[in-house]
Amino acid sequence: MALLKQLIELGSVAKKWEEIYPSKKWKHNYEDRRLLTSTERFCLRRAVYRLWLYSRAFHNARYPRTSRNHRHNILERAELLHNWSTVDLAEMEDMREIMRDVIQNHICPSNGTIQRKFHKRFPESGQQLLFNIHLNYPPPSSAFQAHFHSAHQISANLHTLKYQSTRCHEPGSEGWGDDIPHYYVVEDMLKLDPGQLIWLKENAPLKGMVEAFTKSLGEWFDNNGSTFGQTLDSVIVERGLDIEEFREEIRDEEAGIV
After folding, report:
1. Within 13 A of 249's CA, how many CA atoms are on the CB side?
2. C-alpha Rg value of the chain to the nearest Å
3. How far apart are CA 79 and CA 40, in angstroms?
4. What is the C-alpha to C-alpha distance for residues 175 and 192, in angstroms, rounded to an integer?
5. Are 168 and 174 in contact (CB under 8 A)?
6. pLDDT above 80 for 153
7. What angle do CA 45, 198, 92 make, to 5 degrees?
8. How many CB atoms lie within 10 A of CB 133?
9. Helix boundaries (H) for the chain
10. Measured between alpha carbons, how far is 205 from 157 in angstroms, rounded to an integer?
11. Considering the entire predicted model, what is its pTM?
12. Mean pLDDT throughout 118-122?
């Protein structure tokens, strides 16, 4: 029964990524946006499941920051990726870039993204937001605990609160930095599996809630970026391919899910 429940959860998460993918893949050239074909949906779900497997295998307390470059761990990660063809790896990397977009624009938005969305919602406001990534803003623990791993969705007012300026809330506190600091935040978050990312997108609209979630995972999580990209690079190079050309083909839709 537990296995059946897990399989249903995996399928539900994959379905949500199917719905997200077109809006992110064709975010700028939206005139090309379309629904995925049945074959593309199959490839997407397969990529999601494989990324889930990688995350569960190597992004956990057994692999702290200090062990990421140990030769045994490097070989172990590469061995898993070598199980899949280059076509398979392109699908996984394509999907991972969609997940990256969701992290950097929704789950952990940069200061610039917060500023842009604030002024879009309140165009008449001349308010300058206050950003300080070194402050530890307390998480709204009651809301977080009430919805942690819950099937219920966070109420819409919390999503709205993110960009509202009140006596108790500064929208700038929702920013995760810019440029290099924000890049490392996103790399840290890419360790999360596809299900965890969907959960945060739907249930943790405030920065403090995301911080509470990652803190609950343990000390190993912070300042310990995803190892998938580095491992993928080494595997592609070992196969005699150029990693930049590999990624360019994904961007140009010559490889990947579509």
Report:
1. 16
2. 19
3. 26
4. 20
5. no
6. no
7. 35
8. 16
9. 2-25, 38-58, 71-81, 86-102, 111-121, 141-147, 156-161, 179-189, 194-203, 207-217, 228-238, 243-251
10. 10
11. 0.88
12. 80
